[in-house]
Write a structure and sequence with these properties.
four-stranded antiparallel β-sheet, 50% strand
Amino acid sequence: VELVESGGGSVQSGGSLRLSCAASGASWRRYCMGWFRQAPGKERERVATINSVGTITYAESGKGRLTISQDNAKNTLYLQINSLRPEDTAMYYCAAVSSANYCPESWRLYNLWGQGTQVTVSS
């Protein structure tokens, strides 16, 4: 499975972005898919995950501002981020692991990664 992210950019605080992750190479219905982010000098952290039956988990810091979704026809995963804050500034990565129902919290358990897309939020 190949993952290619897009949609990052520079926005002002309070703005919105929609990140996309195009997946190719296998049926992602057997995968847990997720978004992670890593700010400079910080540990990579989970943002949101969705399993093959549509169960979604959001990081506490993003609840109410995030929406993860997928378009099965396009094999594309999305992350809508609203009310962006400077602390959301990070490289955002799409990731997958072959686990239909269980989505691990730790980024170390995901074995498929995209190249990342940068999100920069200015105050």
